Amino acid sequence: MRENIIENKIFGQRGEFAARRYLEKNGYKILKTNYRINHQEVDIIAGRNQKIIFVEVKTRRAINYIYRDNQISPSQLRSLRRATLRYASKNRLSLENISLDLINILPDPKGRGAVLKHYKNIG
Questions:
Q1: Domain count within the chain
Q2: With CB atoms counted within 10 Å of each terminal CB, which end of the chain scores lower, N or C?
Q3: Which structural domain, as residue segments, surrounds residue 29?
Q4: What does the pLDDT read at residue 73?
Q5: Which residues have CB under 8 Å from 100's CB, separation 6+?
Q6: CA–CA separation, 120 and 62 (whole Å)
Q7: Tell me: the pLDDT tens digits for 3-51?
Q8: Secondary structure (DSSP) of 49-112
C-alpha cells in the first residue's frame, strides 16, 4: 500500500515537472510550486503578461471515460478557487488579473509518451 502511495506521488511530480517545463517554454515565469494555504494546495502559480495563473496539473496513467479533456471534479475546482482567493487577498491582487488553468497530461493514444493539454480560464 505504502509503495503505491509513493509511486503515485513520484508519478504526479513528474507530471508537474513536465507542466513547469511547458509553461516556462511558453513564456510563463514560475512563481511558486506546491503552494499550500490552509488546507488547499495549488500545483503551480505562474506569471505571464501581467497576470497570475493558478495551475492545477492532472497526470493520468490511462484515458478514463470519466475524465475526458478538461474535467476536474467540482470539489477540486472549489478548492482551487478558495486557494486563489486567499492568495489574492494575502498578496493584494486584483481578481481581474488572475486565471485558473488546468494542464492535463494524458497517455498518447499512439503509445508515444504523453500528450499535454493546457486549458485556460477554467473557472
A1: 1
A2: N
A3: 2-119
A4: 83
A5: 53, 54, 56, 77, 80, 81, 84, 121, 122, 123
A6: 22
A7: 565 566 666 677 888 899 999 999 999 999 999 888 888 999 999 999 9
A8: TTEEEEEEEEE-SS--SSS-TT---HHHHHHHHHHHHHHHHHTT--GGGEEEEEEEEEE-TTSS
